[in-house]
# Entry
Amino acid sequence: MRRDFIINSGLALGAIAIAPSLAFSAKQKNIGLQLYTLRDTFSKDVKGVLEHVSKSGYKEVETYGFSSENGFFGTSPKDFKKILSDNGLKASSGHYDFKSMIKDNNTDFLKASIECANVIGSEYVVVPWLEESLRSNLDDYKRIAQKINEAAVLCQQSGLKLAYHNHDFEFVKFGNQTGYDILLQETDKNLVDFELDLYWAVRSGNDPLQLFKANSGRFTMWHVKDMDKSKGEWNTEIGEGSIDFKAIFAESKLSGMKHFFVEQESNYSPNPTDSIKTSWEKKKKKLI
# Structure
Protein backbone atom coordinates (compact mmCIF):
# COMPACT_ATOMS: atom_id res chain seq x y z
CA MET A 1 0.00 0.00 0.00
CA ARG A 2 1.08 3.56 -0.64
CA ARG A 3 0.85 4.35 3.06
CA ASP A 4 3.25 1.50 3.89
CA PHE A 5 5.65 2.72 1.22
CA ILE A 6 5.63 6.23 2.69
CA ILE A 7 6.25 4.95 6.21
CA ASN A 8 9.03 2.60 5.09
CA SER A 9 10.60 5.37 3.00
CA GLY A 10 10.59 7.52 6.10
CA LEU A 11 12.50 4.82 7.96
CA ALA A 12 15.17 4.86 5.29
CA LEU A 13 15.41 8.63 5.43
CA GLY A 14 15.75 8.46 9.18
CA ALA A 15 18.89 6.35 8.86
CA ILE A 16 20.71 9.09 6.98
CA ALA A 17 19.08 12.15 8.49
CA ILE A 18 21.04 14.62 10.56
CA ALA A 19 20.55 14.51 14.30
CA PRO A 20 17.12 16.02 14.94
CA SER A 21 18.40 18.03 17.89
CA LEU A 22 20.48 20.17 15.55
CA ALA A 23 17.32 21.60 14.06
CA PHE A 24 15.93 22.87 17.35
CA SER A 25 16.34 25.99 19.36
CA ALA A 26 15.83 25.85 23.10
CA LYS A 27 12.30 27.13 22.65
CA GLN A 28 11.41 24.34 20.25
CA LYS A 29 12.48 21.71 22.76
CA ASN A 30 9.45 22.55 24.89
CA ILE A 31 7.19 19.58 24.29
CA GLY A 32 3.54 20.58 23.99
CA LEU A 33 0.31 18.64 24.49
CA GLN A 34 -3.03 19.11 22.75
CA LEU A 35 -5.40 18.98 25.71
CA TYR A 36 -8.01 17.10 23.67
CA THR A 37 -5.89 14.05 24.47
CA LEU A 38 -7.27 14.25 28.02
CA ARG A 39 -10.76 15.38 27.04
CA ASP A 40 -12.67 13.02 29.34
CA THR A 41 -11.06 14.45 32.46
CA PHE A 42 -10.19 17.96 31.27
CA SER A 43 -13.85 18.87 30.82
CA LYS A 44 -14.47 17.91 34.47
CA ASP A 45 -11.26 19.02 36.20
CA VAL A 46 -9.36 21.75 34.35
CA LYS A 47 -7.00 22.56 37.22
CA GLY A 48 -6.20 18.93 38.03
CA VAL A 49 -5.46 18.05 34.41
CA LEU A 50 -3.15 21.02 33.90
CA GLU A 51 -1.28 20.09 37.07
CA HIS A 52 -0.87 16.54 35.78
CA VAL A 53 0.30 17.76 32.36
CA SER A 54 3.00 19.87 34.00
CA LYS A 55 4.14 17.03 36.27
CA SER A 56 4.37 14.77 33.20
CA GLY A 57 7.07 17.07 31.75
CA TYR A 58 5.18 19.21 29.26
CA LYS A 59 5.88 22.93 29.01
CA GLU A 60 3.27 23.99 26.48
CA VAL A 61 -0.36 23.13 25.82
CA GLU A 62 -2.82 23.71 23.02
CA THR A 63 -6.36 24.46 24.16
CA TYR A 64 -9.75 23.41 22.84
CA GLY A 65 -13.36 23.73 23.98
CA PHE A 66 -13.52 27.49 24.64
CA SER A 67 -17.01 28.92 25.06
CA SER A 68 -17.92 32.63 25.20
CA GLU A 69 -20.22 31.91 28.12
CA ASN A 70 -18.27 29.30 30.09
CA GLY A 71 -14.64 29.82 29.15
CA PHE A 72 -12.80 26.51 29.35
CA PHE A 73 -15.43 24.22 30.86
CA GLY A 74 -16.34 26.71 33.57
CA THR A 75 -12.88 28.24 34.00
CA SER A 76 -12.56 31.84 32.80
CA PRO A 77 -9.61 32.79 30.57
CA LYS A 78 -8.16 34.88 33.41
CA ASP A 79 -8.34 31.98 35.87
CA PHE A 80 -7.08 29.58 33.20
CA LYS A 81 -4.03 31.80 32.68
CA LYS A 82 -3.30 31.74 36.42
CA ILE A 83 -3.47 27.94 36.52
CA LEU A 84 -1.09 27.78 33.58
CA SER A 85 1.36 30.16 35.24
CA ASP A 86 1.18 28.33 38.57
CA ASN A 87 2.24 25.15 36.76
CA GLY A 88 4.93 26.58 34.51
CA LEU A 89 2.83 26.10 31.38
CA LYS A 90 2.17 28.24 28.33
CA ALA A 91 -0.86 27.90 26.04
CA SER A 92 0.99 28.76 22.84
CA SER A 93 -1.96 27.85 20.62
CA GLY A 94 -5.66 27.18 20.78
CA HIS A 95 -8.35 25.51 18.67
CA TYR A 96 -11.48 27.65 18.30
CA ASP A 97 -14.75 27.05 16.46
CA PHE A 98 -14.81 28.90 13.12
CA LYS A 99 -18.20 27.70 11.88
CA SER A 100 -20.03 31.01 12.38
CA MET A 101 -17.25 32.95 10.66
CA ILE A 102 -17.08 30.67 7.62
CA LYS A 103 -20.75 29.85 7.25
CA ASP A 104 -22.48 33.07 8.30
CA ASN A 105 -19.71 35.69 8.18
CA ASN A 106 -20.39 36.32 11.87
CA THR A 107 -17.21 37.46 13.60
CA ASP A 108 -18.58 37.64 17.16
CA PHE A 109 -17.15 34.32 18.32
CA LEU A 110 -13.88 34.91 16.49
CA LYS A 111 -13.47 38.22 18.33
CA ALA A 112 -14.23 36.50 21.65
CA SER A 113 -11.67 33.81 20.77
CA ILE A 114 -9.04 36.43 19.94
CA GLU A 115 -9.69 38.16 23.25
CA CYS A 116 -9.38 34.83 25.07
CA ALA A 117 -6.15 33.95 23.27
CA ASN A 118 -4.61 37.26 24.30
CA VAL A 119 -5.70 36.86 27.92
CA ILE A 120 -4.13 33.41 28.24
CA GLY A 121 -0.96 34.47 26.40
CA SER A 122 -1.26 32.51 23.16
CA GLU A 123 0.49 33.16 19.87
CA TYR A 124 -1.89 31.26 17.60
CA VAL A 125 -5.61 30.95 16.97
CA VAL A 126 -6.30 27.77 14.98
CA VAL A 127 -9.08 26.66 12.63
CA PRO A 128 -9.47 23.06 13.88
CA TRP A 129 -12.16 21.49 11.71
CA LEU A 130 -14.53 22.08 8.80
CA GLU A 131 -17.89 20.40 8.96
CA GLU A 132 -18.80 18.40 5.88
CA SER A 133 -21.53 20.76 4.65
CA LEU A 134 -18.95 23.53 4.17
CA ARG A 135 -16.52 21.59 1.94
CA SER A 136 -18.20 19.71 -0.87
CA ASN A 137 -16.15 21.11 -3.81
CA LEU A 138 -13.18 23.28 -4.74
CA ASP A 139 -15.29 26.44 -4.82
CA ASP A 140 -16.18 25.77 -1.19
CA TYR A 141 -12.50 25.58 -0.33
CA LYS A 142 -11.84 28.83 -2.21
CA ARG A 143 -14.52 30.53 -0.15
CA ILE A 144 -13.07 29.03 3.02
CA ALA A 145 -9.62 30.31 2.08
CA GLN A 146 -11.02 33.81 1.65
CA LYS A 147 -12.75 33.66 5.04
CA ILE A 148 -9.54 32.42 6.64
CA ASN A 149 -7.68 35.38 5.14
CA GLU A 150 -10.27 37.73 6.61
CA ALA A 151 -10.02 36.08 10.01
CA ALA A 152 -6.23 36.24 9.84
CA VAL A 153 -6.39 40.02 9.42
CA LEU A 154 -8.39 40.32 12.63
CA CYS A 155 -5.89 38.08 14.39
CA GLN A 156 -2.97 40.14 13.13
CA GLN A 157 -4.59 43.36 14.32
CA SER A 158 -4.62 41.86 17.82
CA GLY A 159 -1.04 40.62 17.70
CA LEU A 160 -1.91 37.01 16.94
CA LYS A 161 -1.33 34.59 14.09
CA LEU A 162 -3.92 32.33 12.48
CA ALA A 163 -3.23 28.72 11.51
CA TYR A 164 -5.20 25.91 9.88
CA HIS A 165 -5.22 22.36 11.26
CA ASN A 166 -5.91 19.46 8.89
CA HIS A 167 -7.56 16.06 9.08
CA ASP A 168 -7.62 13.69 6.09
CA PHE A 169 -10.63 15.04 4.18
CA GLU A 170 -8.64 18.04 2.90
CA PHE A 171 -6.56 15.64 0.80
CA VAL A 172 -9.54 14.26 -1.15
CA LYS A 173 -9.11 15.07 -4.84
CA PHE A 174 -11.54 17.10 -6.91
CA GLY A 175 -10.11 16.50 -10.37
CA ASN A 176 -6.41 17.26 -10.15
CA GLN A 177 -6.55 19.33 -6.98
CA THR A 178 -7.31 18.81 -3.33
CA GLY A 179 -8.91 21.12 -0.85
CA TYR A 180 -5.55 21.36 0.89
CA ASP A 181 -3.96 22.56 -2.37
CA ILE A 182 -6.50 25.38 -2.48
CA LEU A 183 -5.98 26.34 1.15
CA LEU A 184 -2.21 26.49 0.66
CA GLN A 185 -2.45 28.41 -2.61
CA GLU A 186 -5.17 30.91 -1.77
CA THR A 187 -4.39 31.88 1.80
CA ASP A 188 -1.97 34.76 2.39
CA LYS A 189 1.48 33.39 3.25
CA ASN A 190 2.16 36.44 5.38
CA LEU A 191 -0.98 35.97 7.45
CA VAL A 192 -1.88 32.27 7.51
CA ASP A 193 0.24 29.40 8.83
CA PHE A 194 -0.56 25.70 8.90
CA GLU A 195 -0.58 23.24 11.75
CA LEU A 196 0.21 19.93 10.07
CA ASP A 197 -1.33 16.92 11.75
CA LEU A 198 1.32 14.37 10.86
CA TYR A 199 -0.88 11.37 11.55
CA TRP A 200 -3.70 12.54 9.28
CA ALA A 201 -1.24 13.53 6.55
CA VAL A 202 0.35 10.06 6.55
CA ARG A 203 -2.97 8.26 6.88
CA SER A 204 -4.30 10.12 3.84
CA GLY A 205 -1.35 8.78 1.78
CA ASN A 206 0.81 11.90 1.88
CA ASP A 207 4.45 12.29 2.84
CA PRO A 208 5.04 15.20 5.26
CA LEU A 209 8.56 15.63 3.88
CA GLN A 210 7.18 16.30 0.41
CA LEU A 211 4.71 18.79 1.83
CA PHE A 212 7.59 20.60 3.53
CA LYS A 213 9.57 20.75 0.30
CA ALA A 214 6.65 22.08 -1.70
CA ASN A 215 5.59 24.64 0.92
CA SER A 216 8.69 25.41 2.95
CA GLY A 217 8.20 27.53 6.02
CA ARG A 218 4.41 27.31 6.18
CA PHE A 219 4.03 24.49 8.69
CA THR A 220 4.90 26.39 11.84
CA MET A 221 3.13 23.92 14.12
CA TRP A 222 2.67 20.15 14.13
CA HIS A 223 0.42 17.63 15.78
CA VAL A 224 2.65 14.71 16.64
CA LYS A 225 0.34 11.71 16.73
CA ASP A 226 1.48 8.15 16.09
CA MET A 227 -0.28 5.46 14.05
CA ASP A 228 -0.90 2.02 15.51
CA LYS A 229 1.10 -0.64 13.68
CA SER A 230 -1.78 -3.07 13.28
CA LYS A 231 -4.73 -0.71 12.81
CA GLY A 232 -4.10 2.53 10.96
CA GLU A 233 -7.35 4.02 12.19
CA TRP A 234 -6.00 3.89 15.76
CA ASN A 235 -3.51 6.16 17.44
CA THR A 236 -0.88 4.99 19.88
CA GLU A 237 1.77 6.46 22.18
CA ILE A 238 4.61 8.31 20.45
CA GLY A 239 7.35 5.86 19.50
CA GLU A 240 5.07 2.83 19.69
CA GLY A 241 3.60 3.21 16.21
CA SER A 242 4.59 3.14 12.56
CA ILE A 243 5.39 6.79 11.78
CA ASP A 244 9.11 7.60 11.58
CA PHE A 245 9.23 10.90 13.44
CA LYS A 246 13.03 11.09 13.35
CA ALA A 247 13.05 11.73 9.62
CA ILE A 248 10.29 14.30 10.00
CA PHE A 249 11.91 16.14 12.92
CA ALA A 250 15.18 16.29 10.97
CA GLU A 251 13.37 18.57 8.50
CA SER A 252 11.80 20.86 11.10
CA LYS A 253 13.74 23.86 9.76
CA LEU A 254 12.42 23.29 6.23
CA SER A 255 8.93 23.01 7.66
CA GLY A 256 9.28 26.25 9.63
CA MET A 257 8.12 24.46 12.77
CA LYS A 258 8.05 26.57 15.93
CA HIS A 259 5.76 24.52 18.17
CA PHE A 260 4.61 20.92 18.24
CA PHE A 261 1.91 19.23 20.28
CA VAL A 262 1.64 15.57 21.17
CA GLU A 263 -1.89 14.32 20.62
CA GLN A 264 -3.58 10.96 21.06
CA GLU A 265 -7.26 10.38 20.45
CA SER A 266 -7.67 6.62 20.88
CA ASN A 267 -6.09 3.31 21.91
CA TYR A 268 -4.49 4.51 25.15
CA SER A 269 -2.22 2.11 27.04
CA PRO A 270 -3.17 1.75 29.81
CA ASN A 271 -5.04 5.08 30.07
CA PRO A 272 -4.78 8.70 28.83
CA THR A 273 -2.97 10.05 31.90
CA ASP A 274 -0.23 7.42 31.65
CA SER A 275 -0.13 7.59 27.86
CA ILE A 276 0.95 11.23 27.87
CA LYS A 277 3.85 10.33 30.18
CA THR A 278 4.97 7.56 27.81
CA SER A 279 4.81 9.92 24.82
CA TRP A 280 6.77 12.62 26.64
CA GLU A 281 9.51 10.20 27.68
CA LYS A 282 9.87 8.73 24.17
CA LYS A 283 10.00 12.16 22.54
CA LYS A 284 12.48 13.56 25.03
CA LYS A 285 14.85 10.59 24.85
CA LYS A 286 14.66 9.60 21.20
CA LEU A 287 13.52 12.60 19.14
CA ILE A 288 14.80 15.80 20.70
Observations:
- The first strand starts at residue 32 and ends at 34.
- The radius of gyration is 18 Å.
- The longest helix spans residues 138-157.
- Confidence is low (pLDDT under 50) at residues 1-27.
